[in-house]
């Protein structure tokens, strides 16, 4: 996967070669159960149920939820607060487990993974962006981006070289030595986006990535997500409260009553989905 954007300065040969070495190395230590069909959608969810125990009895969040996403799609999910949008992303990203049903993400049966395999799967195949950036305040922007690589045992010099290239891709090449407290909200979210993609994942899961930003900055961050989605051939699922941004995606789905429906079909009952 080419990580050099057309509009950004070319990375040094050494940095590019380092990135390719890191990418090939990361394919060797994950043994998740792969779906046998190479033509199948990259994300397949069938009959998903998720229940929680509460003081008032079981809370059923999903009711036989189905979802298919083809490779390269950018899918928006909207819905009221508490509908389960974040929980759905957590299940797709192997951060939570389904109560029942079949869940394939990045062509991997995520429900079958052990905790160790799930961690390796997330590191290799999933880029996750949250509403809040969750950058470590004591580290520089470059060090924050490099953290997923360092966690894999990549040598520091190599990890920082790859991180510097990703900061160029999010237009922050001059902010690498700045700590989060020295960056604006939009800059912090761009660092978080670079960190999410530094391992060249197949799938980007973004949970209200612009929800904490003003409208102008949110638009710029979303444009960046669109650019990186296209240039790196990602498959992206974005939870958003913005119908305007949702309309710019390949598809927009509405989550209500434990099921997903096309947003256009549900538009008569959707005004402005709440954040959450």
- Multimeric status of the protein: single chain
Q: What strand order characterises the main sheet? A: 6-7-8-3-9-10
User: What is the ordering of alpha helices and beta strands?
Assistant: HEEEHEEHEHHHEHEHEEH
Total domain units: 1
Given the structure, what is the number of helices?
9
Largest sheet: 6 strands, mixed
Question: Care to describe what's here?
Answer:
By secondary structure, the chain is α/β, with parallel strands linked by helices. It has one domain: P-loop containing nucleotide triphosphate hydrolases (Rossmann fold), CATH 3.40.50. The chain is 35% helix and 22% strand. The chain has 9 helices and 10 strands. It has helices spanning 13-26, 85-92, 115-125, 141-151, 156-169, 185-197, 215-231, 243-246, 263-266; strands at 43-54, 57-69, 74-78, 100-105, 108-109, 126-129, 203-207, 235-239, 251-256, 259-262. Strands 6-7-8-3-9-10 form a 6-stranded mixed sheet. α1 (13-26) crosses α5.
Which terms summarize this structure?
disordered C terminus; 276 residues; alpha/beta; Rossmann fold
């Amino acid at each position: 996967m080419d990580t050099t954007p057309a509009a950004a300065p070319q990375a040094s040969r050494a940095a590019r070669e380092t990135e390719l070495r890191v990418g090939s190395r990361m394919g060797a230590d994950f043994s998740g159960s792969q779906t046998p069909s190479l033509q199948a959608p990259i994300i397949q969810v069938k009959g998903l149920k998720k229940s929680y125990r509460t003081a008032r009895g079981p809370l059923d969040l999903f009711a036989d939820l189905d979802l298919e996403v083809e490779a390269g799609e950018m899918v928006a999910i909207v819905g009221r607060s508490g509908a389960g949008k974040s929980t759905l992303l957590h299940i797709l990203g192997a951060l939570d487990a389904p109560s029942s049903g079949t869940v394939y993400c990045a062509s991997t049966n995520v429900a079958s993974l052990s905790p160790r395999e799930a961690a390796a799967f997330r590191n290799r195949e999933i880029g996750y962006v949250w509403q809040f950036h969750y950058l470590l305040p004591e580290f520089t922007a470059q060090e924050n981006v490099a953290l997923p690589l360092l966690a894999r045992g990549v040598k520091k010099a190599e990890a920082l070289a790859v991180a510097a290239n990703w900061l160029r891709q999010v237009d922050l090449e001059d902010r690498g030595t700045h700590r989060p407290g020295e960056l604006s909200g939009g800059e912090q979210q761009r660092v978080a986006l670079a960190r999410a993609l530094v391992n060249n994942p197949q799938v980007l899961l973004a949970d209200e990535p612009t929800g904490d930003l003003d409208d102008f900055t949110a638009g710029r961050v979303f444009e960046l997500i669109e650019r990186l989605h296209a240039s790196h051939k990602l498959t992206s699922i974005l939870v958003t409260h913005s119908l305007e941004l949702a309309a710019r995606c390949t598809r927009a789905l509405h989550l209500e009553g434990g099921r997903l429906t096309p947003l256009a079909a549900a538009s008569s009952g959707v005004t402005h989905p709440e954040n959450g």
